[in-house]
Each structure stands twice: as C-alpha cells, then as structure tokens.
Design goal:
3 domains, Elongation Factor Tu (Ef-tu), domain 3, 346 residues, Helix Hairpins
C-alpha cells in the first residue's frame, strides 16, 4: 500500500498560532466581561415605579359630582368629586347661630360682672363706714355719751355690712368664672368660633381636589355612591417623579453609589435609552428563612452548599419622559449603572 502523505509542514505553526489567539481572546473577553459586570453592574430585574396615593374623603356622604374617569390625567387643584354638602351647610349655619347666642350670653354675663363689681364697691364703702362708726362710739360708751343699744346696733350693722360684702365678693367671683375671660380671650366665644371653623372646614372637605399632577387609577365608583370618611375611593399615580426599582445582587453593591448615572431601557420602547440617577440603596429586605422567638433568633438548619447572592433594591430616579414615550407604573426595565467614570457621558 502507498504510504499516507503527511500534512504540510507550514500548517502546524499556523494552527498553534490560531489556538493561542483563541485562548488569548477568550481571556481578554472574560476580563472585559468581568470588568463590565462589576464596574458597570446591570440587571433586568427592574420595574418602573411611581408613588401611589389613595384618595379618601375627610367627610362621609353620597357623591353628587364625579368629574374624572379611570386613567384620566389631572392637574393639581382639579376638582375630582363632590360629596353632598347640604348636611354640612346646615351644620355651619347652626354653629354660626350658636356663636351669636354665645356672644349674647357673654355680653349678659359681662354686665352681671360689672353690676357685681359695683355692688362690691358700694358695700366696701358701707362696711368701712360701719366699722369706723363702731370705733367712734366705743370710747363714748363708758362716759355714757351714747347708749349701749346704739353701740350694739352699730356693731350689728357693721357685721351685717361685712357679711353682705362677703356675699357680694363671692357673687363677683362666680360671675367672673361664668364669664371665663382670660386676658383678651373669652373661652366661650373661642369654643363657639372653633365650632364654626370646624363646620367651615367640613364643608370645604366636601369638594375633593387633586393634591398634585397625577393619573387617576383604579376608579370603581359612580355618582350616587356613599363615600365613607377615611376610606379610599380610588388612587392617584404621582406623575411628578418616576423611578426604577432595580434589584442588584449584593456582590455588586460596592460598585453602586448614590448619584451615579444609569442607562435604562424599557421593554415597551425598544432601542430607546432613558437616563436616570441612583437615588439610594435599600437597607433592608425580608429574609426568607429565620426569625425571632422571644429574644433569641430562630436559625433554621440547612445542608445547602450553594448560596445565592441576595438581591438588594436600588432606587433610580428617572429623568422626565419625552411626550411620545410616557412612563407607566409596572413597565419592565433593564438598568445599567455606568459608574463614576461615566458621569459626564451623554
């Protein structure tokens, strides 16, 4: 048989060189991927979020106006709905009438205080005169310039006027306590005025307005439905600030700091890049295992040899969206933290 021909001698160095190049390229790519992964961490476990605020009336009653529909944008100050104001208008009129009556009663008590004060002044003068009269008659009694009956009559009169003065002072104190005047403030009038202010506030609460620019969501009510005080009737999505809540592995947290720029891509708008800034890194997540019983930690036994890195939420504040690409709460996002060196890139 003819002897098999051997490969060309020049191909062996080429193959060796090609293999070496492949190994070097693989190492370079690995190092590049490692650098990108830890210096510019990326995650697709992210979602667009916004602050969600439940709208609940301060007062209860049937809805007589409903000026919004579900998913409608509203501006700050827009009238959302109106609760039947008639019971609160009646309460306001009642409290205003009670205020007028209170002022009249306070005026009458003030007159009584003035009268009681005048009576005290008169009786103080009479008591002083009666006491001085007894003192004048006392040295005349031994010399019989005055009869004992006259002297005793003066003593009785002095005691009577003193008792009347005591009663007048007590009446003055009672009238002053009824007046409840403390400096320039009268407690009765202040309480009645507070009731008027409360009634005015409750009447104003019948008209519920948007506290900020937002989008109406989860509206499941209609005009005529009874709204309970403090019970949410729908929610508003706060459109003033949007952010992405991205869950990064804890091994990447050393490369993430507040203020770092972030590239965000949304599944709803492919090939369009949004900008954001790291606002903060979460300080706590709910542990899956373990707990506390009394004062001792309850650590569950495990035989797992492989431990998965915990994911920690990172809040990324988004820049305002373009008009044709609005944010929606719950959109799936991919976030890449660019690091300190990329803060000036556009």
């Amino acid at each position: 048989m003819p002897e098999a021909s051997s490969p060309l001698p020049g191909l062996r160095p080429v193959g060796l060189l090609l293999g070496t190049a492949i190994v070097v390229a693989a190492v370079a790519v690995g190092l590049y991927v490692w650098r990108i992964t830890y210096h510019q961490p990326r995650t697709d476990d992210a979602m667009v979020r916004a602050n969600l605020v439940g709208i609940a009336p301060h007062v209860g009653g049937p809805l007589v106006e409903l000026n919004v529909v579900d998913n409608q944008p509203v501006k700050q100050g827009d009238l959302l709905f109106v609760i039947d104001p008639r019971p609160f208008e009646i309460e306001l009129e009642r409290s205003r009438a009670a205020l007028l009556l209170t002022r009249s009663e306070v005026a009458a008590i003030s007159s009584a205080v003035e009268a009681a004060g005048a009576e005290v002044t008169r009786l103080e003068a009479e008591s002083s005169y009666a006491s001085e009269h007894v003192k004048r008659l006392e040295p005349l009694l031994p010399k019989q310039f005055v009869t004992r009956d006259k002297y005793e009559e003066s003593q009785v009169n002095a005691r009577a006027t003193l008792a009347a003065l005591t009663r007048a002072r007590q009446e003055l104190d009672r009238q002053r306590s009824l007046l409840s005047q403390f400096g320039d403030v009268n407690a009765h009038i202040a309480a009645a005025e507070a009731e008027v202010h409360k009634a005015e506030l409750n009447l104003d609460y019948c008209r519920v307005r948007a506290p900020f620019d937002a989008y109406v969501t989860n509206l499941n009510i209609a005009r005529g439905q009874y709204a309970l005080a403090g019970q949410q009737v729908f929610a508003l999505v706060d459109s003033r600030a949007w952010y992405v809540l991205a869950n990064f592995q804890e091994t990447y947290l050393d490369s993430i700091r507040p203020g770092m720029p972030v590239d965000v891509f949304l599944m709803s708008y492919p090939n369009h890049r949004f900008r954001g800034t790291v606002q903060g890194i979460g300080w706590a997540v709910l542990p899956q295992d373990g707990g506390t019983v009394g004062v001792l930690p309850d650590v569950k036994q495990t035989l797992n040899w492989v431990r998965l890195a915990q994911r920690i939420p990172v809040r990324i504040l988004l820049e305002p969206p373009p008009p044709d690409r609005p944010y929606r709460m719950g959109m799936t996002a991919v976030a890449t933290v660019l690091g300190d060196g990329a803060s000036g890139k556009q």
